[in-house]
Amino acid sequence: MTELLGPLVALLAGVLDPLVLQGGLEALGGPVYDALALVLEGWYRVMDFVYALTGLEMIDPDFRFMHRAILVGLCIGVMAPLIGTFLVHRQLALIGDALAHTAFAGVAVGLFLNGVLELGVSPYLTAVIVAMLAALLIELISEVTDAYNDVSMAIVLSTGFALGTVLISLNAGGLSVGINQYLFGNLSTVSAENAVILLALFAVIVGTVALTRNQLLYVTFDEVAAEVSGIPVRWYNRVMVMLTAMVVVGAMQIMGVILVAAMLVVPVAAASQVSRSFTGSLLTSVVLAELAVLLGIGVSFYGEATAGGVIVLVAVAIYVVAVLVGKLLARRDRETPVSVGAIDTDRTDPTEAD
Description:
Keywords: Membrane, Transmembrane, Transmembrane helix. The protein is mainly α. The chain is about 80% helix and about 0% strand. The protein has helices spanning about 1-15, 20-30, 30-55, 65-90, 95-115, 125-145, 150-170, 170-175, 180-185, 190-220, 225-230, 235-255, 260-275, 280-305, 305-335. It is globular, with a radius of gyration of 24 Å. The N and C termini lie far apart (about 70 Å).
C-alpha cells in the first residue's frame, strides 16, 4: 500500500504545484487551445444562424454564455451516457457521486490558490486534476486492500468533501464567492476558457472510447475472461475511472457537483428499459440525454431556475416515460404468438421436402 501510495502522493504534490498548474494552462493555451477556440467561434456562428431562423430569445447573439452552455450541454449529453453505460453494467453507478465530491475539492483547491496565492488558475482545471487523481486512488485502494469498490468510493468521497470544506473554511472571505455555482451549477458560469477545456475533455473521452471500445466491453461483461485472454484489466479499469472523472468535471459546470452523477446513470437507466442490446442502449441513452439537456436548459432559462436541477428533473421524467414504454413493449412481446412451424400430417415420406 505504502509503495503504491507514495508515488501517488508525490505526483499529487507535483501536479498541484502552482508552477505546474500555470504550465498546464500555458500548454493548453498553445495550438490546441487556439484550434478549440476556433471551434467555439464556429459554434457562435451556428447559433447566430439558428437565431436568425427561429428568433429564440435564449440564443440571442447577445447571450454568448447561453451559446456556450448549450455547446457544453450537448457535449455532456454524449460524454455522460457514453461512459455511464459501461459504469451501470459494471455496477459502478455510484462512482459518479464519489468523483463529484472530489471534484468539489478540486474546485476548492483552485479557489484557494487564487484567493491566497493569487495565481489565477482555472478552478475547473484543478478540479480535473484532483478528480483524476481521486479516480486512480479509488482503483488503488480496491487493488491493494482487496476491498469492495463501494468501500474505496466511500473513503474517497468523504475525503474529497472534507478537503473541500476545510479549504473553504480556511479563507471563507475569498473562497465563498461563487461556491454555490459549483455546488448547484449555473448556465452563466460557462466561460469561453471553460468551454474550451470541456471541448478538450470531449475529444479525449470520445477518442479513447472509440479506440478501446472492444477491450472496455470485454472487461465490463467478463473481467476474468478478459484477463485470461491477455487484456490488462487493471489498466483498463484505471482508464475507465479517469474518463469518468473527466465527465464529472465537465458536467459540473452546468449540473453542479450535487447532481452531476445523475447524468451518468439516469439516461442509461432509461435506455435500458427500451433497448435490447449494448449498442442500442448506448445510442438511445445519448439521444435521451441530449433531449434532457436541451429541454432542461430551455426550461431553466425561461423559468429562471437552476439548470442542473431542471435537467435532472427532465431526465427523470424521461426515465418514467421510458419505463412505461418498456412495460408496453414487454407486454406486446409476451402476447405475440411465437411461430413454431407446422407439421404436415398428410406427408408420408418424412424426408420429402417442400
